[in-house]
Design goal:
The protein has 318 residues and is α/β, with parallel strands linked by helices. The protein folds into 2 domains: 218 residues, Rossmann fold (3-Layer(aba) Sandwich), CATH 3.40.50.300; 63 residues, Alpha-Beta Plaits (2-Layer Sandwich), CATH 3.30.70.100. The protein contains 11 helices and 13 strands.
Length: 318
Protein backbone atom coordinates (compact mmCIF):
# COMPACT_ATOMS: atom_id res chain seq x y z
CA UNK A 1 0.00 0.00 0.00
CA UNK A 2 1.28 3.47 -0.91
CA UNK A 3 1.20 5.88 2.04
CA UNK A 4 2.72 8.94 0.36
CA UNK A 5 3.41 9.74 -3.26
CA UNK A 6 4.63 13.04 -4.65
CA UNK A 7 4.84 13.80 -8.36
CA UNK A 8 7.00 16.65 -9.67
CA UNK A 9 6.46 18.56 -6.43
CA UNK A 10 7.94 22.07 -6.62
CA UNK A 11 8.14 25.00 -4.22
CA UNK A 12 9.96 28.25 -4.93
CA UNK A 13 10.94 31.09 -2.65
CA UNK A 14 12.03 34.30 -4.34
CA UNK A 15 12.55 32.56 -7.65
CA UNK A 16 14.76 29.82 -6.17
CA UNK A 17 13.40 26.28 -6.04
CA UNK A 18 13.61 24.93 -2.47
CA UNK A 19 11.94 21.74 -3.74
CA UNK A 20 12.46 21.06 -7.42
CA UNK A 21 10.27 18.47 -9.23
CA UNK A 22 10.53 15.89 -6.45
CA UNK A 23 8.82 12.54 -7.07
CA UNK A 24 9.01 9.92 -4.34
CA UNK A 25 6.93 7.05 -2.99
CA UNK A 26 6.70 5.88 0.62
CA UNK A 27 5.16 2.44 1.09
CA UNK A 28 3.41 1.12 4.20
CA UNK A 29 5.96 -0.22 6.68
CA UNK A 30 8.87 1.85 5.38
CA UNK A 31 11.31 3.80 7.47
CA UNK A 32 12.16 6.17 4.66
CA UNK A 33 15.35 8.11 5.27
CA UNK A 34 15.48 11.53 3.62
CA UNK A 35 19.14 12.46 3.32
CA UNK A 36 20.50 15.90 2.61
CA UNK A 37 22.58 18.79 3.89
CA UNK A 38 20.98 21.65 5.78
CA UNK A 39 19.10 23.71 3.20
CA UNK A 40 18.77 20.82 0.75
CA UNK A 41 14.96 21.00 0.81
CA UNK A 42 14.09 18.27 3.34
CA UNK A 43 12.09 20.48 5.69
CA UNK A 44 10.30 22.26 2.85
CA UNK A 45 9.24 18.92 1.40
CA UNK A 46 7.79 17.84 4.74
CA UNK A 47 6.02 21.17 5.16
CA UNK A 48 4.37 20.69 1.77
CA UNK A 49 3.17 17.20 2.68
CA UNK A 50 1.86 18.44 6.04
CA UNK A 51 0.07 21.39 4.37
CA UNK A 52 2.22 23.91 6.26
CA UNK A 53 3.17 25.35 2.85
CA UNK A 54 1.54 25.27 -0.57
CA UNK A 55 3.32 23.83 -3.61
CA UNK A 56 3.78 25.94 -6.70
CA UNK A 57 3.26 22.87 -8.86
CA UNK A 58 3.12 19.08 -8.68
CA UNK A 59 0.87 16.63 -6.87
CA UNK A 60 0.63 14.99 -3.45
CA UNK A 61 -1.13 11.70 -2.84
CA UNK A 62 -1.69 10.60 0.77
CA UNK A 63 -3.28 7.23 1.52
CA UNK A 64 -4.65 7.26 -2.01
CA UNK A 65 -6.25 10.70 -1.65
CA UNK A 66 -5.41 13.55 -4.02
CA UNK A 67 -8.31 16.03 -3.79
CA UNK A 68 -8.06 18.91 -1.28
CA UNK A 69 -10.84 17.43 0.87
CA UNK A 70 -9.38 13.93 0.62
CA UNK A 71 -5.91 15.15 1.57
CA UNK A 72 -7.28 16.99 4.60
CA UNK A 73 -9.02 13.81 5.74
CA UNK A 74 -5.90 11.73 5.10
CA UNK A 75 -3.75 14.11 7.16
CA UNK A 76 -5.80 13.11 10.21
CA UNK A 77 -3.95 9.77 9.93
CA UNK A 78 -0.59 11.51 10.01
CA UNK A 79 1.63 12.92 12.73
CA UNK A 80 4.65 15.14 12.26
CA UNK A 81 7.44 16.93 14.04
CA UNK A 82 8.66 19.58 11.63
CA UNK A 83 11.07 22.15 13.02
CA UNK A 84 10.56 23.12 16.71
CA UNK A 85 7.42 21.60 18.35
CA UNK A 86 4.93 24.32 19.36
CA UNK A 87 4.59 23.50 23.05
CA UNK A 88 3.76 25.74 25.99
CA UNK A 89 6.88 26.57 28.03
CA UNK A 90 5.11 26.98 31.39
CA UNK A 91 3.06 23.78 31.20
CA UNK A 92 4.10 20.27 32.18
CA UNK A 93 4.36 17.43 29.70
CA UNK A 94 0.94 16.09 30.66
CA UNK A 95 -0.68 19.55 30.56
CA UNK A 96 0.76 20.25 27.11
CA UNK A 97 -0.63 17.03 25.67
CA UNK A 98 -3.99 17.55 27.38
CA UNK A 99 -4.33 20.97 25.71
CA UNK A 100 -3.70 19.43 22.31
CA UNK A 101 -6.01 16.46 23.03
CA UNK A 102 -8.88 18.84 23.68
CA UNK A 103 -7.94 21.06 20.73
CA UNK A 104 -7.92 18.09 18.35
CA UNK A 105 -11.19 16.70 19.70
CA UNK A 106 -9.74 13.36 20.80
CA UNK A 107 -12.30 11.91 23.23
CA UNK A 108 -10.07 9.32 24.93
CA UNK A 109 -8.23 10.96 27.84
CA UNK A 110 -6.05 7.88 28.12
CA UNK A 111 -4.07 8.80 24.99
CA UNK A 112 -2.12 11.41 26.96
CA UNK A 113 -0.78 8.82 29.38
CA UNK A 114 -0.17 6.32 26.59
CA UNK A 115 1.81 8.84 24.55
CA UNK A 116 3.95 9.81 27.55
CA UNK A 117 4.60 6.16 28.35
CA UNK A 118 5.68 5.54 24.77
CA UNK A 119 8.39 8.22 24.98
CA UNK A 120 9.30 7.50 28.63
CA UNK A 121 8.12 10.85 30.01
CA UNK A 122 5.63 9.71 32.65
CA UNK A 123 7.94 10.64 35.54
CA UNK A 124 8.43 14.35 34.78
CA UNK A 125 5.76 15.38 37.28
CA UNK A 126 5.36 19.16 37.67
CA UNK A 127 8.51 19.99 35.71
CA UNK A 128 7.73 22.64 33.10
CA UNK A 129 8.55 22.20 29.43
CA UNK A 130 10.95 25.18 29.47
CA UNK A 131 13.11 23.30 31.98
CA UNK A 132 13.30 20.11 29.91
CA UNK A 133 16.55 18.97 28.34
CA UNK A 134 16.75 19.00 24.55
CA UNK A 135 16.24 15.23 24.45
CA UNK A 136 13.14 15.50 26.63
CA UNK A 137 11.76 18.27 24.43
CA UNK A 138 12.31 16.12 21.33
CA UNK A 139 10.54 13.19 22.96
CA UNK A 140 7.59 15.32 24.06
CA UNK A 141 7.31 16.63 20.50
CA UNK A 142 7.16 13.03 19.35
CA UNK A 143 4.52 12.24 21.98
CA UNK A 144 2.45 15.09 20.54
CA UNK A 145 2.90 13.69 17.03
CA UNK A 146 1.56 10.25 18.04
CA UNK A 147 -1.29 11.60 20.17
CA UNK A 148 -3.81 10.81 17.43
CA UNK A 149 -2.45 7.25 16.88
CA UNK A 150 -1.17 8.01 13.36
CA UNK A 151 -0.45 5.51 10.61
CA UNK A 152 2.24 7.76 9.14
CA UNK A 153 4.82 9.86 10.95
CA UNK A 154 7.15 12.53 9.55
CA UNK A 155 10.15 13.50 11.68
CA UNK A 156 12.43 16.36 10.67
CA UNK A 157 15.96 15.99 12.11
CA UNK A 158 14.73 14.14 15.25
CA UNK A 159 18.25 13.52 16.60
CA UNK A 160 19.73 16.92 15.81
CA UNK A 161 21.57 18.29 18.85
CA UNK A 162 21.04 15.22 21.03
CA UNK A 163 23.82 13.67 23.09
CA UNK A 164 24.81 10.02 22.42
CA UNK A 165 22.31 8.70 24.97
CA UNK A 166 19.51 10.78 23.50
CA UNK A 167 20.38 9.61 20.00
CA UNK A 168 20.18 5.96 21.05
CA UNK A 169 16.85 6.54 22.82
CA UNK A 170 15.37 8.28 19.76
CA UNK A 171 16.66 5.59 17.41
CA UNK A 172 15.13 2.83 19.54
CA UNK A 173 11.88 4.76 19.77
CA UNK A 174 11.62 5.11 15.98
CA UNK A 175 12.20 1.38 15.58
CA UNK A 176 9.54 0.67 18.20
CA UNK A 177 7.01 2.88 16.43
CA UNK A 178 7.72 1.15 13.13
CA UNK A 179 7.29 -2.28 14.75
CA UNK A 180 3.86 -1.10 15.92
CA UNK A 181 2.87 -0.55 12.28
CA UNK A 182 3.67 3.14 11.84
CA UNK A 183 5.31 4.18 8.56
CA UNK A 184 8.02 6.82 9.02
CA UNK A 185 9.60 9.50 6.85
CA UNK A 186 12.71 10.69 8.70
CA UNK A 187 15.02 13.46 7.54
CA UNK A 188 18.56 13.81 8.81
CA UNK A 189 22.06 14.87 7.85
CA UNK A 190 23.50 12.43 10.43
CA UNK A 191 23.79 9.57 7.98
CA UNK A 192 25.27 6.94 10.29
CA UNK A 193 22.08 6.99 12.34
CA UNK A 194 19.77 6.74 9.33
CA UNK A 195 21.80 3.76 8.17
CA UNK A 196 20.84 1.88 11.33
CA UNK A 197 17.06 2.21 10.93
CA UNK A 198 16.04 3.02 7.35
CA UNK A 199 14.60 0.52 4.88
CA UNK A 200 14.76 3.00 1.99
CA UNK A 201 16.63 6.23 1.27
CA UNK A 202 16.16 9.32 -0.84
CA UNK A 203 19.07 11.70 -1.35
CA UNK A 204 18.01 15.28 -1.90
CA UNK A 205 20.44 17.96 -3.01
CA UNK A 206 19.68 21.61 -3.77
CA UNK A 207 15.98 20.80 -3.88
CA UNK A 208 16.30 17.89 -6.29
CA UNK A 209 15.84 14.20 -5.57
CA UNK A 210 19.05 12.73 -6.97
CA UNK A 211 18.85 9.12 -5.77
CA UNK A 212 16.28 6.59 -4.55
CA UNK A 213 17.69 3.39 -3.11
CA UNK A 214 16.58 0.53 -0.83
CA UNK A 215 18.58 -0.73 2.13
CA UNK A 216 19.35 -3.93 0.21
CA UNK A 217 20.57 -2.02 -2.84
CA UNK A 218 22.69 0.25 -0.66
CA UNK A 219 24.29 -2.71 1.09
CA UNK A 220 25.10 -4.26 -2.26
CA UNK A 221 26.60 -1.04 -3.62
CA UNK A 222 28.57 -0.40 -0.43
CA UNK A 223 29.61 -4.02 0.12
CA UNK A 224 33.30 -4.47 0.89
CA UNK A 225 35.13 -6.24 -1.93
CA UNK A 226 38.38 -6.50 -3.83
CA UNK A 227 38.11 -4.68 -7.14
CA UNK A 228 40.38 -6.58 -9.53
CA UNK A 229 41.25 -5.15 -12.96
CA UNK A 230 42.72 -7.74 -15.31
CA UNK A 231 43.33 -8.37 -19.01
CA UNK A 232 40.65 -11.09 -19.16
CA UNK A 233 37.93 -11.19 -16.47
CA UNK A 234 36.37 -14.44 -17.71
CA UNK A 235 39.72 -16.24 -17.52
CA UNK A 236 40.35 -14.69 -14.10
CA UNK A 237 37.00 -16.04 -12.87
CA UNK A 238 38.05 -19.56 -13.77
CA UNK A 239 41.32 -19.14 -11.88
CA UNK A 240 39.53 -17.79 -8.81
CA UNK A 241 37.20 -20.79 -8.74
CA UNK A 242 39.78 -23.49 -9.43
CA UNK A 243 42.85 -22.17 -7.59
CA UNK A 244 41.21 -20.47 -4.60
CA UNK A 245 37.74 -22.07 -4.51
CA UNK A 246 36.18 -18.60 -4.58
CA UNK A 247 32.48 -18.56 -5.38
CA UNK A 248 31.47 -15.19 -3.96
CA UNK A 249 32.48 -12.83 -6.76
CA UNK A 250 30.88 -10.78 -9.53
CA UNK A 251 32.13 -10.00 -13.02
CA UNK A 252 31.55 -6.28 -13.58
CA UNK A 253 32.95 -6.00 -17.11
CA UNK A 254 35.34 -7.71 -19.52
CA UNK A 255 38.23 -6.45 -17.40
CA UNK A 256 36.93 -6.11 -13.85
CA UNK A 257 35.72 -8.40 -11.09
CA UNK A 258 34.53 -7.82 -7.55
CA UNK A 259 35.76 -10.49 -5.15
CA UNK A 260 33.97 -10.70 -1.78
CA UNK A 261 36.41 -13.17 -0.24
CA UNK A 262 40.11 -12.95 0.65
CA UNK A 263 39.76 -9.34 1.76
CA UNK A 264 42.39 -10.05 4.40
CA UNK A 265 44.79 -11.66 1.89
CA UNK A 266 44.69 -9.79 -1.44
CA UNK A 267 48.32 -10.76 -2.20
CA UNK A 268 47.25 -14.39 -2.53
CA UNK A 269 44.61 -13.41 -5.08
CA UNK A 270 47.18 -11.52 -7.13
CA UNK A 271 49.67 -14.38 -6.90
CA UNK A 272 47.17 -17.03 -8.02
CA UNK A 273 45.88 -14.94 -10.90
CA UNK A 274 49.44 -14.30 -12.15
CA UNK A 275 50.23 -17.98 -11.73
CA UNK A 276 47.16 -18.80 -13.84
CA UNK A 277 48.32 -16.58 -16.67
CA UNK A 278 46.10 -13.60 -15.87
CA UNK A 279 47.74 -10.18 -15.90
CA UNK A 280 46.58 -8.04 -12.96
CA UNK A 281 46.55 -4.31 -13.69
CA UNK A 282 45.24 -3.26 -10.29
CA UNK A 283 43.70 -4.68 -7.13
CA UNK A 284 42.26 -2.61 -4.31
CA UNK A 285 39.52 -2.75 -1.70
CA UNK A 286 36.27 -0.92 -2.41
CA UNK A 287 33.06 -0.36 -0.49
CA UNK A 288 31.49 2.73 1.00
CA UNK A 289 29.78 3.76 4.20
CA UNK A 290 26.52 5.68 3.77
CA UNK A 291 28.53 8.88 4.24
CA UNK A 292 30.96 7.85 1.50
CA UNK A 293 28.12 6.86 -0.81
CA UNK A 294 26.31 10.15 -0.18
CA UNK A 295 29.47 12.16 -0.82
CA UNK A 296 30.06 10.29 -4.06
CA UNK A 297 26.48 10.93 -5.26
CA UNK A 298 26.53 14.61 -4.31
CA UNK A 299 30.00 15.03 -5.79
CA UNK A 300 28.72 13.61 -9.06
CA UNK A 301 25.85 16.07 -9.03
CA UNK A 302 28.23 18.97 -8.47
CA UNK A 303 30.47 17.80 -11.28
CA UNK A 304 27.47 17.48 -13.59
CA UNK A 305 26.29 20.98 -12.68
CA UNK A 306 29.77 22.37 -13.28
CA UNK A 307 29.97 20.65 -16.65
CA UNK A 308 26.55 21.96 -17.62
CA UNK A 309 27.57 25.47 -16.65
CA UNK A 310 30.81 25.18 -18.60
CA UNK A 311 28.92 23.89 -21.63
CA UNK A 312 26.52 26.81 -21.57
CA UNK A 313 29.33 29.27 -21.20
CA UNK A 314 31.18 27.74 -24.13
CA UNK A 315 28.10 27.95 -26.35
CA UNK A 316 27.53 31.57 -25.37
CA UNK A 317 31.12 32.46 -26.34
CA UNK A 318 30.77 30.99 -29.83
Amino acid sequence: MTVLKTQNLTKRYGGKAAVDNVSLTVEKGDIYGLIGQNGAGKTTLMRLVASLARPDSGDIELFGQTSPAGLNAARARMGCVVEIPALYPNLTAEQNLEVYRIQRGIPDKGVVRQSLELVSLTDTGKKKFKNFSLGMKQRLGLALAVLNSPDFLMLDEPINGLDPTGIIEMRDLMKKLNEQGITLLVSSHILAELAQISTKYAIIHEGRLVKNITQEQLREECKRALSVTVDDASKAAVVLETALNIRNYKQISANELRVYEYLDNPAEVTFRLNQGGVRVASLHEVGDSLEDYYTKIIGGQRDAASNEGFGRGTEEMK
